[in-house]
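Why should sequence recovery work at all? Because a backbone constrains its sequence more than one might expect. Tight turns favour small or flexible residues, buried strands favour hydrophobic ones, and helices have their own preferences. The token representation captures these environments compactly. In the example below, the structure is given first.
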């Protein structure tokens, strides 16, 4: 099933080019905190599934083009992300890399992106106004956690996967000597974590460890890899994260970028496409407001 968050945090089931509104399947007390509806649905999926299926069949579909797609999990507790997880990417950033000596995610572990940096396929990537810094695209498979867990051994890890989505890990690069901010901050500007277009449940993704992962800018392919090249695979990533803290339903794990990372400028159009998971395109726009602390 393809689940979408749209408009004012409504929940939809997407079938072909239509979205069927199934918001009535989540409790009305969530109207007070609508950005938590999808997390509730993920946590209660076993009980809610039959109702969602009926609602999706009976609700009239609306054309996708008429709704605004949000990040499918709009407000997760955590967005974990793997650094240096494709061999060919390690080293390609040269002096701008903060990973030295070719260490992968296995040695470095994970970092965090602010959940507030998430946007959906109906939004845009906003670059800080007037900035001369370099902003890069990274094309990543996102894994969405389905249930609470701690110290999950990799052998059981796939039981904790609810589904998958496409995720762009947009990054402000360091400038050696002049701008060397923390990684989590450089990757957490508002809109720097586009995710979507939907959340595809795990039963529809037969080979998560073997999916083509591509990103293009203005129609030109920049990144083209396969999740089979992940150094730390999905199972080991869940083991790694859950060994540090409990994972929660709706948590997102960005699995890392392949080679081909490159700059974005205002006016670009960026497309991410992952086999069995989906595809979406976002415009890159200069933010309308200059921040009091500019970058
Ligand atoms: Mn990344």
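From this structural description, the recovered sequence reads:
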């Amino acid at each position: 099933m393809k689940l979408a968050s749209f408009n004012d945090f409504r929940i939809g089931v997407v079938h072909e080019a239509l979205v069927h509104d199934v918001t009535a399947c989540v409790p009305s007390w969530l109207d007070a905190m609508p950005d938590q509806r999808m997390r509730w649905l993920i946590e209660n999926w076993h009980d809610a599934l039959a109702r969602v299926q009926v609602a999706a069949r009976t609700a009239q579909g609306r054309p996708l083009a008429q709704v605004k797609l949000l990040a499918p999990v709009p407000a997760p507790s955590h967005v974990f992300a793997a650094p240096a997880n494709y061999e060919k990417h390690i080293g390609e950033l040269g002096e701008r890399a903060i990973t030295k000596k070719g260490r992968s995610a296995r040695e470095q572990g994970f970092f965090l992106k602010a959940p507030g940096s998430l946007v959906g396929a109906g939004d845009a990537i906003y670059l800080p106004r007037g900035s001369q810094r370099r902003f890069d695209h990274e094309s990543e498979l996102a894994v969405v956690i389905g249930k609470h867990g701690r110290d999950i051994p990799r052998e059981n890890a796939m039981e904790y996967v609810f589904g998958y989505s496409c995720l762009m890990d947009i990054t402000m690069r360091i400038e050696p000597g002049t701008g060397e901010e923390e990684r989590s901050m450089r990757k957490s500007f508002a809109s720097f974590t586009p995710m979507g277009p939907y959340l595809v449940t795990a039963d529809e993704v037969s080979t998560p460890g073997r999916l083509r992962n591509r990103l293009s800018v203005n129609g030109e392919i920049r990144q083209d890899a396969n999740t089979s090249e992940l150094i730390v695979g999905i199972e080991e990533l869940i083991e790694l994260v859950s060994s540090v803290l409990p994972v929660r339903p709706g948590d997102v794990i960005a699995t890392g970028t392949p080679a081909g990372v490159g700059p974005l400028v205002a006016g670009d159009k960026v497309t991410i496409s992952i086999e069995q998971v989906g595809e979406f395109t976002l415009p890159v726009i200069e933010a309308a407001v200059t921040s009091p602390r500019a970058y």
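A few observations help interpret the result. Helices lie at 37-43, 45-58, 105-108, 183-186, 234-242.
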